[in-house]
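Structure first, sequence second, as always.
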């Protein structure tokens, strides 16, 4: 599982000219699930994201979490994070979880964030999404479950 976490001052997702989710201060999280991922890995990943302390405190040090700053999450499914670009010029997505399984994990991810007391807005799984965001910092963190939980 790969997650790209970007600290934002605001962000929104639009599908077919309809806003599906919008937040102020918080994180845009792009989440890609691999064929071997499961709900246990997902829970660890989402809880780590929610607890990440990457907002600045009064001394300018990254020391505050989403709950400390009253932040929200805009969670976007993105299987392309699992792209394999080792050979040729066309990426392979063979390591990405199939859609019918991945949508279940995506829905569970939303549930976990909300269980942690954080507002969670969403995109639309499998749709073409237009994401607008105002990166704050910028601060971008890439989490790979194979590297951080192994």
């Amino acid at each position: 599982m790969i997650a790209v976490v970007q600290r934002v001052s605001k962000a929104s997702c639009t599908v077919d000219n309809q806003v599906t989710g919008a937040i102020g201060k918080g994180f845009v999280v792009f989440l890609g699930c691999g064929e071997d991922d499961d709900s246990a890995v997902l829970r660890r990943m989402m809880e780590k994201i929610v607890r990440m302390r990457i907002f600045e405190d009064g001394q300018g040090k990254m020391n505050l979490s989403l709950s400390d700053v009253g932040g929200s999450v805009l969670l976007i499914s993105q299987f392309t994070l699992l792209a394999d670009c080792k050979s040729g010029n066309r990426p392979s997505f063979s390591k990405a979880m199939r859609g019918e399984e991945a949508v279940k994990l995506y829905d569970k991810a939303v549930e976990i964030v909300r269980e942690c007391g954080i507002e969670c807005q969403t995109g639309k799984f499998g749709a073409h999404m237009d994401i607008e965001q105002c990166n704050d910092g910028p601060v971008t963190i890439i989490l790979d479950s194979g590297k951080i939980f192994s």
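Margin note: The chain has one domain: 2-148.
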